[in-house]
């Protein structure tokens, strides 16, 4: 099956594949990922490939969307990810994003996530998007608010003691 890819002025967003395992390994072990998203026990490129197959590709096959690798048009660098996630313990679809440290503060996260938000509503007919973040991740909260999401409350995911902030946005008619 052919899955949708997306473009912005500076970026290409395509579904993450096993060929991205080295990049995903680097991203998931970056300091902010570990601090704000959590350790997923990805200790090798092989672990990353398994994670992609088991988590990202299975959801992509089931729903037609999942995690997207964000690539610069100018240089072809893999710089981050943005996606739509059917997360256990969260009712609805979650929008998320993460970028390598050297690409933060350049507007890439907003650009990519704004395009993914548009795709959620226009291409995938999702009516409500949610987002979760820990209370300490102020930069994520600011980006979610810039994307138009509104703080709804707090929650805990299964097997996770951390209280999370929950943001929501509805598709405008």
Which terms summarize this structure?
single chain, 173 residues, alpha+beta, Aminopeptidase, eight-stranded mixed β-sheet, 5 helices, globular
Verbal overview:
With 173 residues, the protein is α+β, with helices and mostly antiparallel strands. It has one domain (6-170): Gcn5-related N-acetyltransferase (GNAT) (Aminopeptidase), CATH 3.40.630. It has helices at 21-28, 31-37, 45-63, 108-122, 138-146, and strands at residues 6-7, 11-15, 67-72, 78-85, 93-99, 128-134, 150-155, 164-170. The chain has an eight-stranded mixed β-sheet with strand order 1-2-3-4-5-6-8-7, with helices on both faces. β5 (93-99), α4 and β6 form a beta-alpha-beta unit. It is globular, with a radius of gyration of 15 Å. The model has no long low-confidence stretch (mean pLDDT 96).
Strand order across the largest sheet: 1-2-3-4-5-6-8-7
* CA-atom Rg in angstroms: 15 Å
CATH class wording: Alpha Beta
Span between termini? 30 Å
Tally the helices: what do you get? 5
String of helices and strands:
EEHHHEEEHEHEE
Mean pLDDT: 96
Low-confidence stretches: none
CATH 4th-level superfamily? Gcn5-related N-acetyltransferase (GNAT)
Percent range of helical residues: 25-40%
How many domains make up the coordinates? 1
Structural class category: alpha+beta
Dominant shape? globular
| Biggest sheet record | 8 strands, mixed
